[in-house]
Each structure stands twice: as structure tokens, then as C-alpha cells.
Amino acid sequence: MTKITTCVFDAYGTLFDVAAAAREAAAEPGRGALAAKWPELAEAWRLKQLQYTWLRAITGAHTDFWSVTCDGLDFALEATGLQGDAELRDRLLQLYRELSAYDEVPEMLSRLKAAGFATAILSNGAPGMLMDAVVSAGINDRLDAVLSVEEVGIFKPAPQVYDMVGARFACRPEQVLFVSSNGWDVAGAAQYGFNTVWVNRAGDPIDRLPGQPQHILRDLTTIPDLAGGAA
To answer: Which residue among 42, 66, 96 closes a domain?
Structure first.
């Protein structure tokens, strides 16, 4: 049996709560209009952010994830009737760079490190925004690498992105446990040859894609236990 040596995590939606920016802004004084619509805005923002990465990858029109995030927010603000408030836009983008990590993340990563696993983020995120989130969440010392698609110039699920893990850690795909909250990302990683975990916090149906998750969890708490016996 192949032993897992390396645990790799998607960032947004997996380690970091992508709805936190809109939710936290909505709770601030004077944000009544946002408070009434923040779940709708957060959903539209995330959907467009992802759609733009896929379309840019297909058409070869790459740009960094921060630009995609800004474009997605502009669409979401207009779709929810909140466009035109420059201060609100700036605040939402500031909070996105300081996204809250899910509660179980710091301890989970500490357990992996204590057990001797290499740990990394593999993300569509631009390097600067990833480091802002990692530092804000206080998990920088629990990660061996923060890998951004900007090194290869194409978004996930392109296989060139998953190649970065073997290049960084000198490991084979079957030695990697890849964890994501995005079903399409898990599908791409499974086809690539990684052991995969889908963190399905919302209880969504499985995506109808060729690659299927080997494990499905509701949160990240048991990842260290799973890593010890996943392969």
C-alpha cells in the first residue's frame, strides 16, 4: 500500500470561508442594504469568480485571480442592485483578503505537521492574496508551501496545476491526499491520480464528472486520521 506523504488543500471554500467577507461587512453599522442581500451577493460573487476562471482557461485569456475576484464582485454588486457604492466595494475586497479560516483548520493542520505530513495550499489564488489570507488566519507556520497557479499561468483543473505538487515535494500522485470543497476540483485531482477528499459542507449532490471523490466529509476535522490510512 502506498503511504500518504503530502496533504494538499484548496484554499477558497476549503480552508477559508468565502462567504465571510459579505457576511462580516453586512454586520457592520450602516450596511442595511447589504444586510438584506448579503447571502445573494456572496453566492453570485463566488459563482462568477469560478465561471470566469473556467472561461479564461478555455479561451487562453489568463489573468490573475485577484482580477477575477474583482470582476466577480462587480457583477454581483450589479446583480443585487448594490453597485455604485465605492466604499462598500473597497470594504468587501479588503475583507476578502482577510477571509476567516474555518474553525477546525488551525488544529487540523497542526495535527498533520505533528504526524510528519508535508502540508500545502494549491490554489487559483494570486500569491499576494493567498499570503494575506494565510497570515490573517495565523496558519503560515503550519504550511510547507503555498502554491499558486500563477506559476503556470492557467487555472484549475488544468493538469499543469496539479503537476506543481510533484515538482515541489518530489512525490508521486498516489502519495498525495488532495482536499477541496469544490467538486470540479476534486474531479480534476482524481483524474490526475491524487487520493481525494471532497469537503461537502453544504450537503450538495456529487458532480456528474469522470473523476469522483474517494472520500466525502462535512468538515476537515478528521483529515489527519484519514491521511494515515487513505491509500
So the answer is: 96
Residue 179: which of 17, 6, 52 has the closest Cα? 6
Q: Which residues of 32-71 are buried (b: 16+ CB within 10 A; e: fewer)?
A: eebeebbeebbbbbbebbbebbeebbeeeebebbbebbbe
In whole angstroms, what is the distance from residue 89 CA to residue 83 CA? 8
Domain of residue 196, residue span: 6-16+100-227
What's the CATH code of the domain at 92?
A: 1.10.150.240
Give the CB-side neighbour count of residue 182, counting CA atoms within 13 A.
Answer: 23
| Domains identified in the chain, total number | 2
Look at residues 121, 218, 222, 202 and name the one whose alpha carbon lies nearest to residue 169: 121
What pLDDT, in 10s, does the model give residues 179-221? Answer: 999 999 999 999 999 999 999 999 999 999 999 999 999 999 9
Q: What is the pTM of this model?
A: 0.96
H helix runs in the chain, sequence order: 20-26, 32-35, 38-59, 65-79, 86-96, 105-114, 127-137, 159-169, 183-192, 223-227
The β-bridge relationship of strands 118-123 and 6-9 is parallel
Q: What does the DSSP 8-state code read for residue 207?
A: P
137-140 long-range contacts, Cβ below 8 Å, gap at least 24? 137/15, 137/16, 137/99, 137/100, 137/101, 137/105, 137/106, 138/101, 138/106, 139/15, 139/101, 139/105, 139/106, 139/109
pLDDT at 57: 97
Does residue 10 carry a catalytic annotation?
yes
Active-site pick, 10, 141, 144, 225? 10
